[in-house]
Amino acid sequence: MAVTSLTVSHAQTIKETDKNEQLSLVTLSFPGLFNEDGGGYYDTYLQRIAALEGFQLTIKVLPSMRVTKDYTSRKSDCIFPSNLITISSDTIQTDAFNYARSYLANFKPSSRNLSLQDMQETTISIRTGLDYGALTTMPNLTFLKVSSEIQSLRLLRAKRVQYAAVYFPDVMLEAPLIASRLYYNAQEPLTSIDERLVCWKSDKNDRLLQSINYAIKTLSESGEDKILLGASYLSKLK
C-alpha cells in the first residue's frame, strides 16, 4: 500500500512539473565532482536526474565568498555544500545522494592510529568553506587556509604543515597520485557528511525536490547511482 502511495504521489508530481521549469544550483569548485565545464561526477548525476524528471538544471561554480552571497540573495534556488548556510524553516533539502568524509592525514604510517587528542601545537591545512567538525575549535592549533585539496597536499609535501585535513572522495579525484600515499585513521573521521542540496522553500522547489528524491531512490535501487557517481561513490559509514 505504501508503494502504491509513493507511485501515485510521484505521478502527480510529474504531471504538475512543467518541462520548462528550471532549478538553479550554486556550488564551490570541487574538481571531479562539480567542474566548471560541467563534466564532474555530481554534474553528471544531477543532470541525469533532471533529464529523468523533466526539468532544466543550471549549475554555477563560484569561489567560496561568492557562493553564499549568490544563494542568500536568492540568485540561485539551491546551494552545495549544505554546511555553507544555516538550515532554517525557509529551506528544504534533498535526500542524500552520496557521502563524504574528512580526515587528518600525512605521509607517515603512524597516522593510521591518529586521534584528535594527539593534536598539540600542530599546524594543519584546511580548505576554506568546508566543515571539519571539532578540529577547528581545538586550542593550540594553527590552521593554514587553502582553496583546494591540491594546495593542501602541496603544503604537506613541502612540510609547511604537519597534517592536511582532507575530504574523500574529493582528494582522490583532485590529486590521486599524491592522495594514494596518505595515511589517516579510517575509523576516526573528522566529519561524515550526507551529500545533499539545500534549497529555498517554495512551491516550485517543493515540487522539484520531491521529483529529485524519487529519482535518487530509483537510481539507488537500480544501481545506476554507482555507475553515474563512479570514482566519487562512497557508501554510508555503518
From TrEMBL:
Q: Which Gene3D superfamilies match?
A: Periplasmic binding protein-like II
The name this protein carries in UniProt is Solute-binding protein family 3/N-terminal domain-containing protein
Lineage of the species this protein comes from: Bacteria, Pseudomonadati, Pseudomonadota, Alphaproteobacteria, Kordiimonadales
